[in-house]
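Deliverable D4.2, example record:
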Amino acid sequence: MRCPVCGIRHVPNAVFCEECGTYLLKDRERVTRPLEFAQIRWLGEPNRLRARESGLFDRTPFKIRLRIADDDGNHARQVELSLGRPIRLGRSDPACDIFPELDLTEDLGREHGVSREHTCIYQQGNTVKVEDLASTNGTLLNGQRLDPYIPEPLRDGDQLQIGKLLIQVSLEPQGF
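Output generated by the structure prediction step:
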């Protein structure tokens, strides 16, 4: 294989010329092949092909209800969501193109120390998990600080603290 710019010879399938840095692969080899649907994953979701074989798709989908209040118990609201896909909790920031599934801005999230991408709740098999996304002020589960990116089981009746916001968790299996 010869470099079309400087003429130096290279081993077959070399990607760049060692002499001048020219990209050596032909145009047809530069294309990225799209993934098949079964190969695409959401955060916290196992490989779909292996999951299908292992029966992880045979799961009971959950509905989660969150009652959000600040550290004084004020400004409460209730949100009900399906765990069909992971739910990120945080604050929207259009300038940085960040739009979490549950935006806590209206709950005075910024004033209560909620990061833009603070926490993620997702279902894995028949278990619901919560994971801190390396937030600045951390996530507490029933008073215990979560280590970043280490998922912990989330159960009905648990209490999350995201910054200073308190969130009471209710989980229930979702009927079809």
